Amino acid sequence: MMCKVLIFSCISAVMLMTAAYGASLPPEKDGLLRALISDLQLLEKSKDKIDLDLYTPNDKKECSWQTLQCYLTEMHLLEDEIENKDIDNLQNIKKNLQSLMDLIHRGTECKKCEANGKKKFPAFHQELKNFLISMLK
């Protein structure tokens, strides 16, 4: 009986520590987030040359899937605007956004992409980067 109490106490302590400090991300999700942030930094130098208004979602954690879907949809619009040297980078971003979405539960009661306001590409770029960084935490 004493052994069961000790085991239960240890499990409870681990659960409390996980809740307090946050569970670590699965390696695949962590790797995708870091790759996306790195790829976005490579687009940094081109962001002032792109003159598009793009739907830019609010970074709500409970709607991560829909937020990523919105960013992915808007990324398709960049193909005609981006310099040829950045096409591979854009393709990597789109591929990794899709892979990340495959790892995330689809939220409910989240607004559609078109319900968000539009922002110029530099602001869109920064919001996406901030959202991905927040997902690392």
From TrEMBL:
Q: Molecular function terms in GO for this entry?
A: cytokine activity; cytokine receptor binding
One Pfam annotation reads IL15
Write out the annotated subcellular location: Secreted
List the keywords (alphabetical). Answer: Cytokine, Disulfide bond, Secreted, Signal
* UniProt signal peptide: 1-22
PANTHER family in alphabetical order: INTERLEUKIN-15, INTERLEUKIN-15-RELATED
Q: What is this protein called?
A: Interleukin
